[in-house]
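Hi, here's the filled form for the chain we discussed.

Project: internal
Contact: R.S.
Residues: 284
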Amino acid sequence: MRLNPFDTGNINVRSSSGGGFPGGGAGGIGCGTIIIAAIGYFVFGMDPFQTASVVQGVQQGQVASGPANTDEQAICTSGPYATEACNALQSLNQTWAGVFQAQGFGQQFRQPTLDLYSGGVRTACGNGSSSMGPFYCPGDQTIYIDTSFYDQLDRQLGAPGDFARYYVIAHEYGHHIQQLTGIADQIRSAQQQNPRSANQLQVLMELQADCYAGVWAGKNRNLIEPGDIEEGMTAASSIGDDRLTGGRVSSENFTHGTSAQRSQALRLGLEGDDRKCDAITNIR
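And the returned structure, exactly as it came back:
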C-alpha cells in the first residue's frame, strides 16, 4: 500500500520501555487486564488466566518503569516497521477525521496516540508486555504496539506483508473510533448487565473494529497495490478464534470471532461505508 510519508505535525507518537504502577498500581485485574489477557490468548495461544496473572504481577510493580521517548521523528525513523506505523497513523487520522466531518461530528474526533513501546509498558488500563500483542487502551486513548509482533505475525501466524501490518494498526484504530462514538462504553455496559453475553458482545466489538479497518482501506483504495487485499484477508483469517484455538475453546467462549467472520467483516468495510459497520453491533 503506497501511503504518503508521515509528517510529525499530523500524528501523536511516543515510545515507552518498561512499565509498572508505583506502590502496587491499579489494584487487581480490571478491564484492561482482561482485554490484554484475551489478546495474549487469541494471538499467541497463551492461557488467558496465566496471562492475567502476568499482567497483575506487572501491575504490582514487577516491571520497572521507564520514561517515554517523545522525539517523534526519531521514533518514526527507528526502523521500517516504525516508519510504516507512523505512515499508517497519519493516513488513519486523515481518513477518520474526514468521515467524522462528513457526518457532522467533526468536533467529536480526536487523534489517538501511538506508543511504539519495547518490552513492557504502563498504560491507563494496566500494564502490558510485548508477549501480549497490540492493544488499544480507552483510558488514555492510545494504541500500543511492540513492533516485534510483526515478525510473529509473519513467521508464526503466516500473515506477511505490509497490508497485514496495516490491518493490525487499523483494527486497533477501530477501537479508538468505538471509544469516540460511545459504542465501546455501551458494549461494556451491556456486558455488565448481561455477563452471560459478554463474550458474544465482545465478538461484535472486535468484528466492528475489523470492519472499520476495512473502511480505512476502502476509502484509500487508490493507494492499494496488487496483493494487498489478499494479505489483509490472510491476516484476518489467521487470528480467528477457531483457528488460533484449534478447537480447544467452544464458540460460546470466542471473543474475537471466527476466521470467516473476521474476513467477512474486513471485506464489508472495504466497501468504504462505515455505516454498514455500525450495523454489526446494532447499538449506534
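Let me know if anything looks off before we file it.
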